[in-house]
Amino acid sequence: MISTAPSTRTLSESAQNPTGGTARLAIVIPIFNDWNCARKLLPLLDDSLAATPGEICVLLVDDGSSVPAPNDLVEKPLQSIREVRILRLRQNLGHQRAIAIGLYCVNQRFSADATIVMDGDGEDRPESIPALLEALQKSGGREAVFAARTKRLEKPLFRFFYQAYRLIHRILTGLPVRIGNFSVIPKSSADRLMVSSDLWNHYAAAVVQTRMPLRTLPMPRARRLDGASQMNFLALVTHGLRAISVYSETVSVRLLVAASGFLILSILLGAGVLYTTFAIPQAVPQWVRLAVGLLAVLCLQATMLSLVLVLPVISSRSHAGFIPLRDSEYYILEQVRIW
């Protein structure tokens, strides 16, 4: 098992390390049957971290894979990475929840000074890690650093739906979609996430929602190292909805305000139509009066539905859901060191 002894280094001591406060660096990678990609990714990580001092541990979170990890996952000796471990979960939870469990394991059992979160398919480029660590160092080890995507390599249809999702996300939450999983967070940020229920739904959104110090670095995505993505359209839609669900309070209040605004406009429009009808009886056709009346009824219903939605959402914040620090152990089957 990974050492559970707490780190005794202070921030001022660790900030001298080039990794930005990381004498111990952990890399959390969720994996679901993507072992061929993981096999190719590990040597690339090892090469990219050659100039990074300190103790480096890679934690592959086996998200209930139906295909077991091969015995030759580490094909050759690694020089920069001290150890590689597989954290097996009891069932498939999805990569966002696998990240949550992985962060808990690193926080409680490895006590890393900083943790890198990345996907295991190679689209998060290992050679970009030094830049993330350098940005963390410049912040004095106080800010989480996320990769902001500058170029996507997916098919045009995917990019179209992704842009549509970004627009919907912006309208509902008021926030742009800028970041994904690829990031490095200091221990102080990981400690805060351990009591965030939002981490169970979406890692990046949970970081934003907790209002922890955050900066972004523009970075392009790479191509997969092997095979095709196992994420289908429905899985991607679910992923997007989970991100929006983290801002459920904001979304519900914005819907209520928007519905109320349309209701007020429809009332003013109805008053204008009513006045015109009495002043100039022939000026307003019958269908216009019916349309305005129907619009007012619809806006009233939308306002009432929004009010019914916002009250339970706000009250639900007083009830603790999944707490990583409390509940993660239930989902962990075993942890195995493979290197």
Secondary structure elements and their pairing?
Elements: H1 11-14, E1 24-31, H2 35-48, E2 55-62, E3 83-89, H3 95-110, E4 114-117, H4 129-138, E5 144-149, H5 156-173, E6 179-186, H6 187-193, H7 203-209, E7 214-219, H8 233-245, H9 248-279, H10 286-316, H11 324-327, E8 332-337
Parallel strand pairs: 1-2, 1-4, 2-3, 5-7
Antiparallel strand pairs: 3-8, 4-6, 5-6
Helix pairs in contact: 9-10
Structure description:
Helix content is 46%, strand content 16%. It has 339 residues and is of the alpha/beta class. Helix 9 (248-279) packs antiparallel against helix 10 (286-316). The chain has 2 domains: 11-232 and 322-337, Spore Coat Polysaccharide Biosynthesis Protein SpsA, Chain A (Alpha-Beta Complex), CATH 3.90.550; 249-316.
Number of helices: 11
Helix content: 40-55%
Strand order of the largest sheet: 7-5-6-4-1-2-3-8
CATH domain class name of the largest domain: Alpha Beta
Instruction: Encode the helix/strand succession as letters.
Output: HEHEEHEHEHEHHEHHHHE
How many domains comprise the coordinates?
A: 2
Radius of gyration of CA atoms, rounded to a whole number: 25 Å
Strand content: 15-25%
Shape: elongated
Mean pLDDT: 85
CATH topology of the largest domain: Spore Coat Polysaccharide Biosynthesis Protein SpsA, Chain A
Largest sheet: 8 strands, mixed
Number of strands: 8
